[in-house]
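Quick one, T. Sequence first:
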Amino acid sequence: MGSVSAADVRERVRELLAARDPAAVEPLEFLRARFDAGLAWVHFPEGLGGLGAPRALQAVVNAELDAAGAPDNDPRRIGIGLGMAAPTILGHGTAEQKARFLRPLWTGEEVWCQLFSEPGAGSDLAGLRTRAVRDGDDWVVDGQKVWTSSAHTARWAILIARTDPDVPKHRGITYFVCDMTDPGVEVRPLRQITGEAEFNEVFLTGVRIPDAHRLGAVGDGWRVAQSTLMNERVAIGGGASVPRESGMIGTVTATWRERPELRTPELHDRLLRLWVDSEVARLTAERVRQQLTAGAPGPEGSGLKLSLARLNQQISGLELEMLGEQGLRYGDWTMVRPRSVDFYGRDAGYRYLRAKGNSIEGGTSEILRNIVAERVLGLPAEPRNDKDAAWKDLPR
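Structure tokens:
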């Protein structure tokens, strides 16, 4: 389309609404038409849900469609696909892979999950043991993954596996797309401190993945995975523009205003400090989103995600203290396997317990501090004795 302006995308939106009245068509039909019109991710290429337009114009599209009452694609339910799989497929996939996966991913017809972490390779992700062995046009995969959100609802997974044990651990990894409905894929729930099983462990036994579902070159999986992880941390730490007093801090400040009998000078001081920290994090996230218009996400997303984990835990703790005995009530301990995580439609006890996972998921806070120290601040890296040794020779 050449140079795309705000007027251009508004015209596209008008054409879409004229052809598909949101009040008269099924939501899925509208979402498919929106993708085909290039209004899913305007910064993606034409034909892949975008217009090759500046990323900032997505906000224009979203505002116009929201005002028209158009359905969304339930981004909380498909967040892994939107925030992690889609940018990785766009950056490293073949033309056939992009054409096959991106449209049903964005419309929510196909849910995605992430098969990265393992029982013995969480923080040290490159130490993973899951093996993929070439067999003709397929790869045969055996191993175990853990902490897999949405595995119980997912059709597809982004997967990294070891394909060469004779080279250093970062160089012998390959990246695949795994069909979660294939024989040999077993998903087991992991019940969390909240009582729910939002996470899962996944066992892979003789799972055959066609080479056509490999993303990137053989042995180049670590580089591809870094693209996924950087996008994940931006998505968790600040993937969408939000107004002031959004998220956890908005919930607590609403309680503060509505319940004056709960106030104390000490809680007031803590709330003000956390409000300022939350606003700093929100504005920093907005700056990072603006930087994304000029290129791929960098290590700054790790800092955002680190801040989010700390703030959510401190704010949810403050809320619990403010509510006193009421905060100790827990609405529902039923073992369920939710389709998405909702911090704000639940009680304070749920928020407090669920926030504990924020410093683990998407990279532990300890690992993120290392990334910020080395890649943002330029501090010397920690000594590593395993950097040049073959994976098979490392002690386990």
